[in-house]
Amino acid sequence: MERIRTGVVGYGLGGRVFHAPFVSAVPALELSAIVQRTGDSAATAYSSVALLRSFDDLLASDVELVCISTPSNTHYRLSRQALLAGKHVVCDKPVTVTSAEAEDLETTAKAQGVLMVPFQNRRWDGDFLTLKALISGDTVGRTVTLDSRFDRYRPLAKAGAWRDDAEGGGLLYDIGPHLIDQALALFGRPERVWADVRRDRDEQGNTADAFDLHLWFTGADGRELTVRTGSTVLAVNPGPRYRLQGTRGSYVKFGLDPQEPAIIEGAKVPHLDSPEPWLDEPAAAWGTLSLAADPADPAKVEQTQLPTVRGDYRAFYRNVADAIRGKAEQAVPARAAVHVARIIEVALESARTGGVMPVNAASW
Length: 364
Known about the structure:
30% of the residues lie in helices and 23% in strands. It is α/β, with parallel strands linked by helices. It folds into two domains: 4-121 and 316-330, Rossmann fold; 122-312 and 344-357, Dihydrodipicolinate Reductase, domain 2 (2-Layer Sandwich), CATH 3.30.360. Strands 14-13-12-11-7-10-9-8-15 form a nine-stranded mixed sheet. A six-stranded parallel sheet has the order 3-2-1-4-5-6, with helices on both faces. It is globular, with a radius of gyration of 21 Å. The mean pLDDT is 95.
């Protein structure tokens, strides 16, 4: 079957690190064009790929799939243009600033008979895949709480950065969509939400650079479980990425998935047809699994360093290709963007009022 001609829009960090390398590594996809308004770094890295200067030129081409990695406040407009041009779309987070816009993209994609895919690549982080397996396998018993954080130390705001724009900027829109999507992928719709959205830096930018978000879910057994998530740019010594507490044990994992830093440092993503593995996490970074050997004796705890499941962002794009060709269900549906946008809206209302807000099932 003919490969799916694919264009990447934007060649900043997203296009350079998360899209172009992984599109190129999937046999069913062909990276055929990159839209880069200025500079020629894309042409240097991908000499056989057409370098385009305008989005309109890409839409006029024969690409089937458009991957949008541009500033957040352009996502809705560019995604909608591409869908109306009959192109399948993968769009970076946040896909839209509002849930109404996300609903419109979902409706437009259905009407055009094409796919609208939120780029939630971090569902294929190795640590998240490990966490997911522990929860689905009931390894630590019934889940009681999950702490999920993405903290870094970046005390100085970058002047002129689009992530600091008033519309779609700030950490809740930048890191929040990944953390929220992971929680929803694990547990479904939360019943209630509480949020603190704030500015932690001394030198403050235009938008919030920190947030804490609590989500309360009803588990399959009808019991309540809590996810506490958040992010700050003022964590010199970050805490755990995950801390899972269950009725029979816990899992604590430090550090972030190694794929992004590996590519930034120059690693090449192997083709999926290649026998070369991508990308094992060093044993020193594995999480700790603690299980109660005897619930009646809290002192008896068995601890092991649990190997991290191999993360692989190529699997995201392999699924996109299979979904386009009708070989698989879309792993990250357009509705996921609606859900994330809705939770952000509820979180902002909670931060404004200081209250715990319900999540309306009818809006889901």
